[in-house]
Amino acid sequence: MKKISFVLNGDKVEANVEPNMKLLDLLxxxxxxxxxxxxxxxxxxxxxxxxxxxxxVRSCITLAVEVxxxxxxxxxxxxxxGLTDSQKAFIKxxxxxxxxxxxxxxxxxxxxxxxxxSPTEEEIKETMANNLCRCTGYxxxxxxxxxxxxxxxxx
Length: 155
Fold this sequence. Notes:
This protein is α+β, with helices and mostly antiparallel strands. It is 37% helix and 16% strand. A 5-stranded mixed sheet has the order 2-1-5-3-4, sandwiched between helices. The chain starts with a strand and ends with a helix.
């Protein structure tokens, strides 16, 4: 076991973890955060996406020991003050059906817009392609993000 400490959704936390424990399991089983989902288990679908020091990572392939001394943010951490602008846009556009992939898309969108507030349509498509949704045709997801970008440009 290794003792790690890190900031989780704004709170300093500690945990004793096995060297091979995945961050996804730590977040869900130890800390009770359910927004990161276990999808593919291979880092390909994006359902487990969280932010580490502001960068999106797949928590299903990230070892828990790797976050020692870092800052981890889940969707719960992004929405401490209510729904994010991304969530509101996705709801408005009925972008999701089952919602399983939604947290990964929201985290990905928030990261993208923080790093690039004015992405092109192609950049949005390229970024969103890193997340898999089995229910939609992506049209509503892309429309939601494009509208959010336009709204932010207008202020």
